[in-house]
Every structure is written in structure tokens, then in C-alpha cells.
## 1
Amino acid sequence: MTARLELKGITKRFPGVLANDHVGFAVQPGEIHALLGENGAGKSTLVKMIYGIMQPDEGEILWNGARITVANPKAARKLGIGMVFQHFSLFEALTVLENIALGMDANIPARELEAKIRAVMTQYGLLLDPSRVVSTLSVGERQRIEIVRALLLNPSLLIMDEPTSVLTPQEVDQLFVVLRKLASEGCSILYISHKLHEIKALCDTATILRGGKLVDTCEPKVETSRSMAEKMIGGSLKDIKREGRGLGGEKLVVKGLNLPADGPFGTALKDISFTVRAGEIFGVAGVAGNGQNALLLALSGEEPTARHAVTVNGTEVGHMRARDRRGQGVSSVPEERNGHAAVPVFTLADNAILTARDRLGMVNRGLLDAKAARTYAGEVIEAFSVKATGPGAMAESLSGGNLQKYIMGREILQKPQVLVVSQPTWGVDAGAAAAIHQALVDLAAEGSAIVVISQDLDELLSLCDTLAVINGGRLSTPMAVSDAKIDEIGLLMGGIHGEQTPGEVAHAV
Amino acid sequence: MRYKLEKRREPSTTMLVVTPVASVIVTMLIGILAFDALGVDGWAAVRDIFLTPLLASHKWQDVAVKAAPLVIIALGLSLGNRAQVWNIGAEGQYIIGALCAAGVGLAFGQAGGFFVILLMIAAGVIGGALWALIPAVLRTRFSVNEVLSSLMLTYVSLQVLGYLVGGPWKDPNGRNFPATAPLPESQMLPSLEGSTMHLGIIVALILPFAFWLLMSRSTFGYQVRVVGSSPNAARHGGFDAKQTIWATMLIGGAMAGLAGSLELTGALHKIDLGFPSGYGFTAIIVAFLGRLNPFGCLLAGIVLAVTSVGGQLAKTTVHIPDSTAGIFQAMMLFLILASDILIRYRIAKRA
């Protein structure tokens, strides 16, 4: 059988980086093929070449046995290659139909297009009203638009780039049904992910990349998640050591926390209450855009709230701003690294001053102690193996993962009483993620209370003692991770808890 | 061969220094070509505008007197610009500062001396700051763009000046000219024997050090830089953006007011309709040409003062209007802004 797509010796160089080094593999008709690797392993570069966004420096691409050059994405779509990107390109103020019509290469009359869309939707169970305005749709529904857009071209290869990172477990299941149906009809699927259990559940073959090189091709169904992870990182995974951690008294008490929405597409926080004890790691799960950012801002003090809403060690701090809350021992790491957690055009030493100046005495009579800042930045770089030229390196010159390690280290080494982190290992490789997780557990073991806000449910389940789900700005009742059920968490993530009105569900996305 | 812009890993410090110098040189070259094309001796024009004031020692005092207010105002403006606060109304704050100083002087009549002069200057500083307070309040309370409000207030200040010098403050012995009476000698800043060099020039030489300390070594300077480059990071770090806007606007106004009061007490000694000579606007160019760096402002202030003095000179030697200097100043600003991109990007050959 001729392979649908075959890559031979594909090489792509960027200044100073070999993004793909003689990569070759084949995707058969009707096969669901996983492309697995850590951030920076070269997955994105590889699919960008298949989809015609970039051209390879060396090597060849065979399409149904014939050698081809894919000049641009339009040419790729003409060949029958469709792609669903991780970040959607949709206009919020337009309807589903209008968005799809805008993305079509051919000019099809609206009525005809609508009929086609409805046909594709019924065929694959992608239920969606074409006249809905995108801003009222959930992330999962928005993804369906992108999938329908790709399916309208009758692709024989569909590339899915990290499609599940924003979905609830139930939505993931629905997506898999669609993908399996497509494959059974002969469409090949190239599935990019680093979520191993999904790959085990869905894919026939997995190609594993590491540092731009192909390291293995395996059959996920016979591998374990751990064995694939170890191939992916090229070493053995360390388990988190979490013994010897007892829970102490109440450290962080949040009671009836409300915060108005920030702008028309923001999410308001409504009556959030939870308690984190000393030594406890408290997880907040949820699909992106359900109030996670607002929660972090309300806890860090960047958005002050009612005085009694937040209590730390028995002191009411709700009315305090970020600086005073730090004085009470509250540190935080927001999701956005560049421009929020760090100033991109400042050196790492100057970025240390941003959050550590008062706690670590870097200010003397209104003047900054540059030496203390450099020393502390050096300690963080050392302790968290940050790859940087030194404390004088610009924050923006670091890779995302390394900057994340630096920022996490900057807060953890200050030994805060309460640490609130959002997406602590986002974009960080598995080895470094394990180190960050270990550092969080160690901090908790010393008696700090930790809140982890993450969209990665696996991360929360392995790290946290207690878990709650945020949806539409409301927090579910916290549950112990040891007796949490995935189904139940999934339903909560999808917004099924009690008396919520449809209007609020729409607003939540 | 095709070229493309490639992002640098780190901003280039070389380019930070090279681009302002190159802007001045390119301005001179364009000047030579443009005047030659117009049938004027281009080299003579550019020489008189850019070089003669530097080479002829008797012009140095003129340069110093003109540079002092430019440097002082530019220092204040560059602080605000670092925080992304765009005060375009320094000219107005300069005028109000001078008027406040003159008002205090008038109140003391013929009395003078150290404390009166100090009081006049203090009044100038406070007056300039209060005039800048208006756009600061409008911006922080009502989100009014400070570019427009501060600029428009300049025209208001001109009307205030016109009213005062043509009305209540008019010199009774001044043959009905709209101007204040000359300051009594006891209210003038001390100046060098037989020269126009006054104490304000010393102030303009010391202030860059103070501003350097403030910008690079103090927590306040850090706050200004963070608020200017990443407002969200500033909030995360616990810095108040509104407070920063207030502070930088007030300092900018205070510096302009200081320059105005020094100009009154040190150089012009009276206020008439010709008192506002555009220092507040030229200082914007000084701040950018000086790369918002205090010592850069000092050097750039001298360069701009040279072109102003040179423009006067060229009027008599090569018979071109003295507004030519303004064209050159604008060209420098244009070129410096255009070459800014080279700090963060490099030109590379396209593969």
C-alpha cells in the first residue's frame, strides 16, 4: 500500500537551531498517527512544512507516492491536507457561517455553503447552529467550527495541533468519536500532542521527536504512558516525592469573593469560597476563560476586593494591593510570563527586583541594591537550572520554558506563606516540569499553602491534595483528590453544577 | 541583493549611541544637498548652523544660555516619556512657571536678594507643576489623552501671558508696550562678569546627575521604567500606574517651570510677548535625540542650542530665514525616530 504521506530526511535550520534533523516517517490512509514530543522538539516546524507555511531546507515530501512541494497553505488544501490549529482564527462578532465563508478559498454562495455545512455537521455529529455568533460559543464549540471548516474541503489528511488542550474530558471524548469516524472513512490524521493517555486511547502509531530528531516510532496501544514519556524526554521520569507532609492550620481563607468582570469578554468572580491549610496544595481546574485570570488577580492583590474576602494567617488582606499582600507573605505567578510576570526588556536581575525587592531587602533608602538583585537572580538561575547567559540576560532572550522556570524560582525561593500559581508548567519540558512540581511539594512540606490554577487536569491530579473546578466565575465545592472522579470533574468543567442560568454559561466563554 | 530586518537577541547598546550621532550627520548631509539644489551655498549654510557656533568661542555663551532651558525641560520630559506619559505642553508649563516667578517678583517690588530669588524660582517650579497637574488629573480621572490636553493648555497659557503683560502687569514706564517692567537687579540671578552666562547654566549641568541617580538607581526610577514598558508587570510588582502618571507629569511640569523662572531671572529679566520661544517644544526633540538618558539630554540640548544660534547666524551670512534651523531640528527628530528600529533589529541579507 502506498503511504498517504511520507517524509524523507526532512531538515530545517533556523539561525543557531536545527529544528528538524533528517526526520522521516509515513502516514498510511485511514491511520491516526501521533506526533509526540516536548515543547521545542520540532513538531510544529514539521507540520508547518507539511501544510506549506514553511519550506524544508533538505529532504522530500511524498504525497500518495508522488514527490511534491507544498508552496503555501492554499496549495496544501488543494492537495487535500487540512489543518486545525491550536489557536483559532475566528472573528468573535461574526456568526459561524460568516466565519466559515471568510475562510474558504473558493467563492460559494451562502445558501449552498450553509447546506454543505449542515451536511458535514450531521454526518460527523458536530452539532452547531450556523447562525450563532462566535462570541457566545464555548471553546469546544469554536473548535468544531475549525474542524468543519477543514472537513468542507474533503481532506485526505487532517492535521490536528494540540486539539485537546482547551477541552473538557467529555469534549475530548466527543472529538475522538469524530476523529475515529473520519479515519474509518479513510482520512489520515496527524495528531500532535504531548498528552500520552490520549495518544494511547486514540492513535495507531506514534512518531516521537526529541531535539529535532526522530527518536522512535512505536505502537501506543502496547506502550505504557511512562515508557513513551521516557522516550520523549530521553531519560527516566522522577516520581514526585510527597511523603512526610502533614496538613497544619488554615493559612489562606477565601470567603464570598466577588470581582466584577474586566471588560465585555471578561469573567466576573461570583461568591468564591475555599480554604487552604498549611502544607496543602489546592488545585483549581477549569477550561480556559472561566475566571482563572480574575481569580489570580484577586488573590495576588492586583485587583483588590472586599477586605474580609481574603484572609492570610488570620489577617484580612482582601483590600490590600499586590505590594502589601506580598508583605503578608502572598506570592503569585500569573499565566502570562512576558509582560505580566516579567518585564521582557529588563534583565533577570532587574526582574528579581519586581517581586522580591521588599521581601529580600533590595531597597535601601529609596535606592536599589543592584548587587543584591544580581546575587538573588544568580541563585534562582542556579537552583532551577535556568538556561541563560546570567543575571544580566534580558528576560525576552530566554525561551518560554526557561523564563517560566526563572519566574517560578523567583517566587518559590522567597519562601512565601501562600503561593498562587497559574499554569506553573505551561510550555516547560517534562524534566523541568517535574523539578517545578517537586519544588512546589517541597515548599508545601515546609508549611506553605499553595494554590495551583491549571487547565492540565493530569497535572492537578498528580500534584494536588484538594481540587475544585472553576466555571463561569464560580468555584465548585472542593473535593479531596484521592476520591475525585474524572467524570464528575469533567461535568463541572462543562458547567453542570446546580442552578446556573444559560446566560451565565454563554458569558463564561 | 535583498535585505530584511532581523530581530536582535538583545537590544544593541552600540546603536543606542550611534543612531543619534548618525541622525545629526545625515541631517547635515541632506541640508547640504537640499540647499545646493535650491541655489544657496549648502556647505556654508550647514557650516554656519552646525559648526560655527561651536568653533567661534564668542558664540559659546549664547549656546550655553540657550542650552540650559532645553536641557532642564528635556530631563523632565524624558522621565515622563519613559513611563509612556506624553507631555507635549512643556511650553505652557514653562510660560506659567515664568509668570509665577514674575508675579512673586512684582509682589516684592524693588526688594530682592537671595531669598526673594529663591522664592521666585520656587514659585516657577510650583506653577509649572500645577499647570501639568491639569492634564494629569484629566488623564487619570477621565482617561483624556494628555497629548491633546497638555498641548491645548499651552495656548491657554499664551492667552494668560498676553493678558497679564498687556494688562495688570504692564510696565507703566514702557511706552505702552505689552511687557513687564525689567526686574530690579536684586531679583536677577548672578551671572559671570561681562557675560550672559548665568547661574541657571550651572543648574542645567548638575541636574543630569540627579536625574541619572533617580532613573537608574532609585526605586522610583525603576517604577517609571516598569510602568512604561509593561503596565501589567508593574501592577504585578505592586506599582501604581496612576501614581506614576501623576509623579512624572508633575516633575515634567516642575522642570519646565524651573526653566521658565531661570530664563526670567537669569537671561531675559522681563516678560513680553516674545518670551515664549518654543523651548518647550524643542526640548521634545532634545529628549529623543538624547535617548531619554539624562546625560544624552545634556549633549542633545547643546546640539539643538547650536542649531538655534547657528540659525540666527546663517540669517546674516547666507541670507536664509532663521526658521531653517527649525527644519533641521525637525529633520533630526524624524531621522532619530526612523533609526530607532536598528536598536532592536539588524539588517540582514535575505537568504
## 2
Amino acid sequence: MTKMIWNMPIPSIPLRMEKREENRTLQFIETMTLTTSYHIFVKEFVSEFRTRYALNALLMFVVTTLSIILFSIGKESPTQDILSGTLWIVIFFSAMSGLSRTFVAEEERGTSMTLRLLVNSSSVYIGKLLYNFILILFLSLIIAVSYLLFINEFEVKSYEIFWITIFLGSAGLASASTILAAIIAKANTKGTLFPVLAFPILLPLLLTCINATKLSTEGAFLTEAVKEFQILISFTVVMVATSFLVFDFVWKD
Amino acid sequence: MKKLTFKSENISKLYNRKLILEKVSFSLNEGTSFAVTGKNGSGKSTLIKILCGVLSPSKGTVEFSVEGVTVPYPDYYPHIGLVSPYLNMYEEFSAEENLTFIAKVRNLGSESVKRAEMLLMEFGIYDHRMKEVKNYSSGMKQRLKYCAALLHEPEVLVLDEPSSNLDQYGIEAVRKFMKLQKQHGILIFATNDKDDLEYADTIYSVENGKA
Amino acid sequence: MKMWLKIAVSVWITGIIIAGIAFPMVRVPQTWYEFPFIPGLEEKARNIIFHVPISWATVVAFVMSMIYGAMYLRKKDMDYDLRSVSSASLGLLLCVLATLTGAVWAKFNWGSFWNWDPRQTSIFILLLIYGAYFVLRSAIDEEERRATLSSVYSIIAGVTVPFFIFVMPRIMSGLHPGSLGDEQGKGPVLEFKMATNMLMVFFASLIGFTVLYFWMYTLKVRLMRIERHVQQINESH
């Protein structure tokens, strides 16, 4: 079958089409990074839905860790502070197991060079950052909802603070994890290295998230948590800006 | 034909503090071809990667200009098409999806659809365009790489081992495009195949460092 | 480094150690070598002369490592990487020393070696960052890539450090001078509550440890250059 097709006469279509007149370089730069980033983001998503590398495993991971917490609580009634802490432990480790996938898969399958040749590094970074953000936001929403449903002792009194924390925390996690994932994709021991590198960097973020979650369980007003949100936002901004500047060195290595 | 210049000046690359490329310099204009030869492990592929801007050189510069306007290194990737064993297509996508993705991120217009079809036909994988790439044989993957590299009609076509994994039909198709590229732009390729070297105006040996 | 400078630093540091340990602490100082008591610290105040300059040198080493990392990224010269890693390895040593001197001081002033005070936590994080930095380096075989990636990591880690200054005191109550809710205010060091003679020894120590760091740093750099050179010769034979 295949042989027959390959032996077909070569069709007589003009081999070079009329070249567009405008300067392609200028046009290319003008189209900005954002549309390209969007295409990379979409590619990442479709790829994930086809292969299900990360998603299934991550959902199982969430189920497993949550049930371990449930078993270990048993009939005890832990304090809200401890429960706020464990919530972020679950989110941190699911981020650690899921967020490195984008770059590691690219490196393992040898497609990173294809991508390097197609687009500039900044659009790769923005595309992957967006994908990681959506992935971790989705995961932490699932974790937060099931946490609220299954752990009865965990009582959130001010939901605005709680959900804003989840949102900003996910953004912060994605911002730091994306550049670290790009780094570890080039190293030898990928799996274990990620949490080791990420923990000291993410610690100010995690501590602030835990603090804000505690505030939400105490029924604080939104204005009381503003300082926490400011820290979370500035962490994310600083991380994204720095990563944006140094990403080129990692990607084009 | 556009006026093109492609110039490399004193490119050096260190790997574990050992020089694997030392002061590679050459200059090419439109309508020429350039072949790189050398033993396995002599740094052919590294040179190719540096020329395409996917790997940065330790020292030296690469300069590329279209119609006298210099395009800064390494941002000239819109002008470059590369086929290399290090460059893979997305396995979970079909050939068509791969090409569509490339056309989108390269911001090629709607005429690229027609060109993609034409290229798929040229390389004899048109009937397999809906199949996912993971089901392809290595030869078919190589053909798809050519489709991807030629999709945007690059001014500079760079080939690393042009005829690897290909059967006679594939080699013929590749040779046809090599000839065309030589007429319309710049062709750079790395090979040890004597038949391929016929297409080169200049032959550069990585070991001797001479053209 | 010049010979006279080496001798000068040795004499300088020896003098500081003698002064820091042997100068008597009295309530009413009468001669130039008598330190006054600082309420709440007493004899333990001697540690200021060692703990604070070492912590300062740790920060200097960290910043130097980061700057040389950034220089490597710009110039792609392996010598910058060598300087960066030399500074980082000295920084790790100084960081351990700062942690230990701090822990000893904490034991006698706050009751236990480790209290999860904001500053203690910060220095613990700094240790973790150094640890992660060296783990990352050992996980990459290709030297140029190792240099690039570790430089990027130290920059990323460097920009998070200021967050600890804002975040830590909010999360946990502090015992260390300078943290929120401390009646002593910024503490004897930052508010210059120390007596003049003690202050002079303190600044002498600050200068001494900084110069000592640079001396050790140049030694380390030279040693590593020789190591690399020998390795290169061995490989070429």
C-alpha cells in the first residue's frame, strides 16, 4: 500500500509559490509574542488531552494524599492552623509532580529544538507559563473543593479570602515552577531535583498562603488580608519578570 | 531572487572546556551551497545548531542579512529551515496537525495550507497525513521533517545528514529540493555522503578547518 | 594578595579574637579595654563581635556568587563560573558558621538552640538554597550547561531573598533584634548602643572578616584554576 503511493508520479504543482512582497521579518516581529504564546498554550493543552501524561496521575495523586490526610486525622480534631498547612502541602506537592512535565516532555521527546527553531524564547516562556498556571489552578481548585467537602473540621469563614488565596497562590506557584522546570529539564535527575530546588524559593509564597488561609478560617475581613495578597502578587510579578529575563539562557543552552 | 549574505566569523564552541569547534569562518551569498564534512563526533551537528541559532557559540558571530538588512542573531529563525536528527515532530499529533501548528506559530498565511499539501505529496506522505506521527516509520518521519522545514520557503535551508533514513524515492525528492534551494537561496548541509557532496559549491572540513 | 596584607589580616583577626574573648566586661568601664555591660546580654554580648560579621560575610559571599553568575551569563567565560562557585562554597561554610554561632547564642539567651525565629529560619533557607545550588551542579555533567543553569538558579534564588525580610516577621514572632514587637528596638548593633571601644572592635571585626573572606576567596579561586589546569593536562595526555 505505502509502496504504491511512494511510486506514484510526482505531481506537477509549482514548487515555489509567489513570494509575498512585504518583509517577512518585520511582519514576524510585529505579530508579537502573544499570539504565538497562545498557539503554544493551545498545543500544550491538546497534547495533554491526547496523552494524559500529567492529568490522570495528578488527579490520583490528589485523591491519594487527601485520603492519607483523612485516615491520619481519624477521630482527632486538628486545629485550623494545621489544616491550613496540610492544604498547602497537598497543593505544593501536586504542583511539584505536575508542573515540570511541560519542559521535561519537550526535552525527552526531542521536540525542544523544533520549538526553539520555530519561535523566540519569550513566547515559549509565556505559553508554558499560561499552561502551567491553568493546570495548577485547576488542580488547586479540585484540591480546595474536595478539602472543603471531605474534611469537616476545616471551616472557612470568609470565602473571599480563601478563593483569592487559592488563585494568587496558584499564580505564584506557576511563576516560580516554570523557570525551575526549564532548568531541571536539562539536568540528569529530573524528578527528585524539582522539589529540592523549588522549596527554598517557594517558601515565602507558601508561608504567606498558609497565613492567608488561616485568616480565612478565622473569619477575617478582606481588608485584613490585603498585606498577604500584596506579598503574593509582588512575588509573582518579581518571579515572572526575572524568569522572563533569564529564560533565554536556559532555553538556548 | 533576494540578495542574501550569510557570514560566520570565528565561531568557537567549548564542550567541557574542550574546543570542539575552532574559529569557523565562511561567507555565503544567494545561489550558493555549502557542505560541512567531518568524522562522527567532529562537531558537524554542533556547527549546524549554532548556525541555526538553537545553540549559542562560545565565541564568534553569525551574521545574516536580507536585501542588505541585517537580521540579528539568533532571531533570524523565520528565514531558516532545518532538518536534523535532533529535531523531532510532536508524536501525539498527526502530520497535518504538526504542519498546521508550525504554520500558526510561524504566522504563515492561508496559502501555507496549499503549500503543506503540495509538500506532503512531494514527499509521498500525503495519504498518511491524518495519522499520528508515533505510527510513522523513521523514513516517513524524516520526510515529514522536510515538509516542516520547507513550509515557510526558507531563504536558508540547513540539512544535517540529508539522506539518512530515506529510500531511493525520498532521496530523489530531497535532491530536487536541494537543487531548487541552491537556485533560490542558500543551502547548507552536513554530510559524509559522496553523492550529496556533488551539490556543494564549497566543501568545508571541520577537522582541517579549511574550505 | 600581598604578603604584608596577609600578615596584617592574620594579626588583625588574632587581635580581634583576643579582644572579643579576653576584654573584661564590667558595669562601669574605667580603662580603654573594659567593655560595659549591655542589659539582657551580659557576657554573651561578646558574640556580636563574631556572629554578626560572619553573617555579614555570608551575605557578601552570596551576592558575589550571584554577580559572577550573571557575569558568566553575559560573557560565557568559564572563569566567571569558577569564581561564582568558589564564592558559593565559601558562603556555604560561612553560612554554617553563622548558623552555629547564632544557635549557641540562642541557647544561652533564648533558652534553646533552635527557636524558628524569623532570622534563624532565614539563615536555614539560605542553607537550603546553597544546598540546592550544589545539588543542581552535581546533577549536570556538561560544564558549560552546569555553569549556565546554576547561575540562573542563583539569580532566581537571589530575588526571593528580599521576600523573607517582609514575610518572615509576619508569620512568626521574633526573638532576634530587629524583628517586629521587639522592645529593644533594632538591637544593640543597629542602634549603636554599644560603647565606643566595643563598637570599634566590632567594626574592626567586620572589616577583618570581610578581608578574610576575600583572602580565602582568592585562594579558592587559584586552587580551582590549578585543579582545572591539571585536569586539562591529564586529559590531553
